Amino acid sequence: MLVISFSLVNMFDSIGTLLGAAKQSGMIDENGEVIRMKQALMSDAVSTAAGAMVGTSTVTTVVESSSGIAEGGRTGLTSLTTALLFLGAIIFAPAVGIVPSAATAPALIFVGILMLSNIKDVDFSDMSEALPAFCTIIFMPFTYSIANGVALGLITYCLVKLLLGKVKDIQVLTFIIAFIFVIRYAFMTLG
């Protein structure tokens, strides 16, 4: 059960950042659907599996893509250039290790600002939509995890809709996934 919930957290993290990156790059059709979403998610899944096989932490290709998209990258040449520069950076990895982690804060702040740019689309006049969005945004820095923020926002969404009697607004799969997250956090706290 816990393995499923961790996989769901990673999946929602990827989908959420993919939607943000697609919106930023103008790759959403007239129905609000991401163009070639299957290929983008497959690319993310392959990179995550490849990263796991070599022992790295979870690879999230979509979040980093937001920076390239913000600078005008659309064709993949930005990603290829970044990959080649990272390969070259392996040589300098020992020297980079002496840079304190606080020095990376400006880059993380920049990526955070890019991710936050879509907040203008949240309907803050509807509290059943605004509160879960707020919880999602606020729990990301408090828990040091985008995935935890998404999970807690999803749980809040279901709770608010249930308490307001708007049960028909909750899709069955959304409710099931939120319930799995509740079980995950229960097991985490109970040990």
Secondary structure: elements and pairs:
Blueprint (H helix, E strand, L loop, with lengths): L1 H24 L11 H17 L7 H10 L6 H13 L3 H4 L8 H12 L10 H17 L2 H18 L8 H19 L1
Helix pairs in contact: 1-3, 1-8, 1-9, 3-6, 7-8, 8-9
Features:
191 residues, mainly alpha, globular
Descriptive overview:
This protein is an all-alpha fold and 191 residues long. The protein is 70% helix and 0% strand. The protein contains 9 helices and no strands. It has helices at 2-25, 37-53, 61-70, 77-89, 93-96, 105-116, 127-143, 146-163, 172-190. Helix 1 runs parallel beside helix 3 (61-70) and helix 3 (61-70) crosses helix 6. Mean pLDDT is 76; it is low at 1-9.
Shape: globular
Helix content: over 70%
Q: List low-confidence stretches.
A: 1-9
Structural class: mainly alpha
Radius of gyration: 18 Å
Mean pLDDT: 76
Strand residues, percent: under 5%
Number of helices: 9
In short:
With 191 residues, this protein is mainly alpha-helical.
